[in-house]
Every structure is written in structure tokens, then in C-alpha cells.
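Hi R.,

Here's the chain you asked about this morning:
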Amino acid sequence: MIDLNLLRITKYRNDFNKVRGRVPEAAMDPQTNALLADFGYYFDQLPEHDRIDHATFLPLFRSRHPTLSTEQRSAFDKIIENALTVDVGDDAKDTIMRSMLELRLGTDLATALAKFDAGDLPNIQVEISKALDQFKADAGIRNIDYLRDDIGDLLSEEISDAGLRWRLQSLNDHVRGLRGGDFGIIAGRPDKGKTTFIASEITHLSAQLPAGQCAVWLNNEGPGKRIIPRLYQAALGARTSELITLNRAGRLKEAYKKVMGSLDRIRIIDIHNADCFTVEAIIERNSPGLVVYDMIDNVRGFGDAARTDLGLERMYQWGRELAVKHNHSALATSQISNEGDGLQFPTLGMLKDSKTGKQGACDFQIMIGASNDPGLQGVRYIGMPKNKLRREGAHPDPRATVKYDPQRARYEDIPMAPADTE
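And the predicted structure, written out as C-alpha cells:
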């Protein structure tokens, strides 16, 4: 009876639009799926109809299925008449909607198991978790309340300039501070200072976090232990030789702690070959205020996308969803494609393997440009071809020329020359 009652519900355009996405087609009988498809066609062809009219629908249905036998046509006629002339109450509707969710959950789990058995699913736990999250979200829709944030409280964030401020003032002048839910991309060409930029900025950003809160650097680019000295260099603005001198004097850790607030303010976690389920478990365990994905492109769990760019788009959307769900700021590193090599300010579409997918999932995109001129090795160019966090009255793109100092793991603003007043 669930299938017939489902048809009784979906003969109304409004209910059809609400219910259609919840229907697990694999769990429905072929007749129900065929009629639901025809219901959709009816509403598309007759936009002025809010309810399927029996007399109008019947000839339309027959024209779409001309090969039905007399017996099949008679069976469908009875189902159609029953569905279109009888209504169901609200209580029955709620029960059916819940049943649809349970059927969809069972179908999703069975599909995941079949893929896993066939070797087409590397991590079944990810799919199970995703299916359960979708079920819980849809089943609990009645408990989802509207946002009650007071406009005064929201504006106070702007008045107080809330958020984590960047080390580079050229960024602060054009983009507000980072807040929970913000998601940005930082991109550069290989070996052009991307890790140095992250170290320079994360040591400054994370030092502003409330006491007891940390930043997490999720690393799958190389040995994580190589990043630790870079953090000490960036935090203290010191070269390796200066770190060695401080360490021999027994003062290095104390100096770092004084700047950062604690030795583990930034936690480097190697996630080589990890999947998205593992990554989210790490975030849940550490409750960070800031997360760096280096590189999010290498996180497993999105390999079933039809094209590379589609898989990457899902990765970046997932990273953004985690930032909102767990209320942290997030920075995902990416690479600039070969077409951006040697450019001072690479454009929005020059991310590796993506013209629009990655870009659409972020709030801002910082592009680290570098000239191939040997005389400009100590200079980098900071552009923001996308900036949804722009400051009022400021241009969204700083297009700044900055100093690049890899020996101290720092990016620094180049002071403007004083204006000539004569």
C-alpha cells in the first residue's frame, strides 16, 4: 500500500516536488516508478495545474506507453483511478514520508555493500556514515528551527572587526578576519613558497585563537616533521642557525610558547592515504578553530566521480561543509596549473584540474604569483581573484607585491616609500 499511497500524495504538484527526492527508485516497483516519471512529465507540460486531473492524465499516459497490452493498460487504469481520486490524511502522509526515508536508507546501504563486495568502494564506512547523516538530517527536519541571530549581534562582529587577522597587512586591508565557517583556497606553483606562506600566516592566525583552542595542519604532501621547524622559524622570524642557538641555550621552546601561547597550538597531523571519514574524526577529536588541508586534493573518498574535476569539486564542498558543521576556519592548499607559471597574478581559472569547481566551493582564493626572473626570487605577488570576505569600500583584490623570506619562513609586506612632499 505504500506505493499506492505515495502516488496519492504526489498527484499534488507541491507534494510531488517535496517527496520526489526522497523516493528510492531501486526499492519501488516498476509501475510506481513509471507513474512517478509520468507525473513529473505532466507537471512539466502543464505548469498551470497544481493537481493531476484524471481525465487529462489518462490520454497523456497512454500516448507515452503505446506498446502496453490490453491487460497491462487495464491494470494501470485501475491504479491511476485509485491514486488520482483518493486522498490520504496528514498522519498517513507523515508515516509514508518516514517509510520513504527508511527505504532510501536501506537501499543506500545495500548499494554500498554491493559496491564494497565488488571491490568498487575503497571505504564502506564513509558511505555508511554519509547515508546515516542524510537519514538523520531528513528525518529530523521538524526539529530544525529558523535562525534567530539578532541583527545587532551580527553587526557587532563587523563593528569589532571580529576574526583572525592575517600577518600580511596587505591582506587585512582587503579581506576581513577569518571566522568559523569561512573556507579559502591558497594556491601556488610547485616550489614557489606555498608551505612558507602557510607557516607564516598560520603561526600568526592561530596565536589569536582563544586559550585552549588549537589549529590543525592536515599534511599529506611530505613528512610532517619537516613542517615543525618551519613553524618555529615563522613564529620567531628566525633562521635555522638562530633556532639552533636558542635550542642549545635551552630557550627555544619557551620563546615559541611565548609567541604561540602553547607548544601544541598548531598540531601537525600526517594524513597520507587517509579518507574523508578519518579526516573528520581527527577534526572532531581536536576541535580546532583553524584547519589547514595540505593538500585536500589527495584526500581519499571521492574517487567515484565521473571526472577528476567533479571529484575535486566534491572534495572542496566537503571541506567547506566541515568548516560550517564544526565552526572553524579552513584553508585548503592547491596548485596553480602550468598556464599560470611565471605570472605575477594568476587568474581565477588557473587552479590545477579545475576551472570552476574548486573555485565555486570557497569564500576566497589567494593566488601566490612568482616571476621566473632570477633577480626576483625574493619577491612574491599576492592576488585574490575571488573574495567574498572583502572589506567595505576596499577593492576585493589586493594585488600586493611582498617580500618572500624562506630562510625565516616569512612573507612580509614591503613598506611603501614615503610620499615626496616637496
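The chain has a mean pLDDT of 86.

Let me know if you need anything else.
M.
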